[in-house]
Amino acid sequence: MKQQTLHEIFGNYIKQQSIFKNKDVLSHSYIPDITLHRDNQITQLASILSPALKGNKISNLFIYGKTGSGKTLVTKYVASELEKQSNKIKTFYLNCKMKRVADTEYRLIAELSRMLGCSIPPTGLPTDEIYRKFYEAIDLEEKNIILILDEIDALVKKIGDDVIYNLTRINQELKKAKISFIGISNDITFTETLDPRVRSSLSEEEILFPPYNATQLKDILTQRTKEAFAEGTLESTVIPKCAALAAQEHGDARKALDLLRLAAEIAEREGSTKICLDHVDKAEDKLDTDKTVELVKTQPKQSLAVLSATINLVERGQQNIQTGDIFEVYQEICKRGGLKILTQRRISDLISEFDMLGIINTRVISKGRYGRTREIRLPLSKPLIEKIKKVLAENYIL
DNA sequence: GTCAATTCACATGAAAGAGACCACGGTCTAGTG
DNA sequence: CTAGACCGTGGTCTCTTTCATGTGAATTGACGA
């Protein structure tokens, strides 16, 4: 019986004509031939990088703009075109936000060295040894190396700006090669937090990527849908809707593409041959939920206990939840679950981590005579909370 | 009524410890010719 | 003689604790009008 239905599902799937013509076009990593509405930035970037073609060192460059504004796309594109022009130019791209790649100074340098082709053990060597190997690897040939550090703000937040300072000074030690940096950040205020020395050497040039507006997003989506979908699968209102939703969120092209892809997937799963508004709504819902649930799943037990305490308090209907309240409930949860109880200091950090992840909202408030604390709110919808509770239950914390 | 001092309940920072992981070099051991 | 197992040393990484310092407005209490 069960096998019968499975058979049907697979059978139907094969029979069904796919909505997608080429799904990859909608993925983040896809680089289209023509990047729309970024001519200005491409020209700027190209003119800053072009001295490399004559073997000169280019200025270090700092690029900023919100997520999904095309920074990475444009930079990668221009870099690869540049590389094609001259074999003396090598560009490397590193996303600093990737876990286990740039968590520490050691790992960052080790990863960079690996890109340059030397093999570095994941741990066990002194850091200055790694630096030495890194220098050697760079200076092997007479090359102009351009290092693109994406999400550089995450890097600095984790390990401080010393590394950047060290990196920008490498050139003085190099005999043959030259190295330049392109830092990409979506935090516009980021450079202000840097050490002035680092700031001046890192951002000799700057390029700003403004967010896309709804019309521009529409163009981008239209461009991609031509390749991604078979003709006539889109209802005419779908693209404007996706564009509008993404434009609300600081013009995030990535989100627009995600929405469209997910809407199409949902439509396909429902057996529909057309993508309509309803699918977009569902996609938006799912996009938010999935992101949060996945995030929660990756959290360690202690953090889950803290989250559980928060949900517990919210469901009891308590107003103005404070760090102290959470700590009390958390202790109970630990006792029941046989978990080690961490100090309030640590819990305070865990709470602010959740805040950064956007799972909870916190605000530091001073209540005068009655102290200073964080006021914590849970901005999640009921169904989402239920899903999170399921995750907690799976981890035996509830 | 005004104004400075006090006070609370944490926030935030810095340093340091514990326990995990890993590389490396030296030593030991068993197997081979 | 040699390959592989094993061990000690020295390094990093992550999570955590401990200790110290900071913070901002409600409250308090002294003071003067």
How many strands, which pairing sense, and closed or not: the largest β-sheet?
5 strands, parallel
> Helix count, per DSSP?
16
* Helix-residue proportion: 40-55%
* Shape label: globular
Low-confidence stretches: none
Reported by name, the CATH topology of the largest domain is Rossmann fold
pLDDT averaged residue by residue: 85
Count up the domains.
3
CATH class of the largest domain: Alpha Beta
What percentage of amino acids are in beta strands?
Answer: 5-15%
Roughly how many Å is the radius of gyration? 25 Å
Span between termini: 37 Å
Supply the CATH superfamily name of the largest domain.
P-loop containing nucleotide triphosphate hydrolases
**Beta strand count:** 8
In N-to-C order, the SSE pattern is HHEHEHHEHHEHEHHHHHEHHEEH
Strand order of the largest sheet: 2-3-4-1-5
Sheet/helix structural class = alpha/beta
| CATH architecture classification name of the largest domain | 3-Layer(aba) Sandwich
Features:
398 residues; alpha/beta; Rossmann fold; Helicase, Ruva Protein, domain 3; Arc Repressor Mutant, subunit A; 3 domains; 5-stranded parallel β-sheet; 3-stranded antiparallel β-sheet; 16 helices; DNA-binding
Model description:
The protein is of the alpha/beta class and 398 residues long. The protein has three domains: 39-209, Rossmann fold, CATH 3.40.50.300; 212-294, Helicase, Ruva Protein, domain 3 (Orthogonal Bundle), CATH 1.10.8; 299-394, Arc Repressor Mutant, subunit A. 52% of the residues lie in helices and 12% in strands. The protein contains 16 helices and eight strands. It has helices at 2-15, 39-49, 71-85, 105-115, 127-138, 152-159, 162-168, 196-202, 214-228, 238-248, 253-269, 277-297, 301-315, 323-337, 344-357, 382-394, and strands spanning 61-65, 89-95, 144-150, 178-185, 205-209, 321-322, 361-366, 372-377. Strands 2-3-4-1-5 form a five-stranded parallel sheet. Strands 6-8-7 form a three-stranded antiparallel sheet. It is globular. The model has no long low-confidence stretch (mean pLDDT 85). It binds a DNA duplex (33 and 33 nucleotides) through helix 15, strand 7 and strand 8.
